Amino acid sequence: MKFGPREIVLIVIITVSFAWMMSLDPIAQSQVYHNFADQRSILGIPNFLDVASNLPFFIFGILEAIS
């Protein structure tokens, strides 16, 4: 396969960008960020509303699978 000048420039840009990103330190994230999740336990299920909000996806997935 023969690369033209446009492809070579694109490959160089991608390679340099990737190398630059990999040389950066990780972005620090505050632990408070993770407090957005529902932390209540209902019926013995931790984070109940986060779990229960997936119920419609489960129901429609089952309906799609059986149709």
Structure commentary:
The protein has 67 residues and is mainly α. The longest helix has 19 residues, at 5-23. Strands 1-2 form a two-stranded antiparallel ribbon. The chain has a domain at 36-67. It has helices at residues 5-23, 48-52, 55-66, and strands at residues 41-42, 45-46. The protein has 3 helices and 2 strands, in the order H-E-E-H-H.
Task: Please sum up the structure shown.
With 67 residues, the chain is mainly α.
Task: Reconstruct the topology from this structure.
Elements: H1 5-23, E1 41-42, E2 45-46, H2 48-52, H3 55-66
Antiparallel strand pairs: 1-2
Q: Radius of gyration over alpha carbons?
A: 23 Å
Specify the overall morphology. Answer: flat
Overall residue-averaged pLDDT value: 92
Largest sheet: number of strands, sense, barrel closure: 2 strands, antiparallel
End-to-end CA span: 47 Å
Largest sheet strand order: 1-2
